[in-house]
Design brief:
This protein is mostly beta strands. Helix content is 8%, strand content 35%. It is built from two helices and seven strands.
Length: 109
């Protein structure tokens, strides 16, 4: 299995290609790294490939905030210019500018 370089980075604000949510990336897996149960819960016709980066997001939609795990093929850059309201953003990130949050020093690799 050939690994690809991640298209998006830690602190970047992205949105889902199909569903109405957006979020801040706080971690990246080079390939699928969740449970088989999670994988099987996705309908086969929309299930993404395993051989691509998967992103952990501090996600939000119109109603709530949550943690999401999303394949690269389902993400787009968010061009809204709006910061995210997820309550954990301030724990992991500092300044927000141009669609990116600066990771706090103890969250950098």
């Amino acid at each position: 299995m050939e690994m690809r370089e991640a298209k998006f980075g830690i602190g970047q604000v992205v949105r889902h290609r199909r569903y109405p949510f957006r979020g801040v990336i706080f971690d990246v897996d080079p390939t699928f790294s969740n449970t088989e149960e999670w994988w099987e819960s996705i309908p086969a016709e929309t299930r993404p490939r395993r051989d691509q980066p998967f992103y952990h997001l501090l996600a939000e939609n119109a109603e709530t905030t949550y943690i999401a795990y999303v394949s690269e093929q389902n993400l787009l850059e968010d061009h809204s210019g709006r910061p995210c309201r997820h309550p954990q953003v301030d724990e992991m990130f500092g300044e927000y500018e141009n669609g990116h949050y600066a990771p706090l020093p103890y969250y950098q690799n």
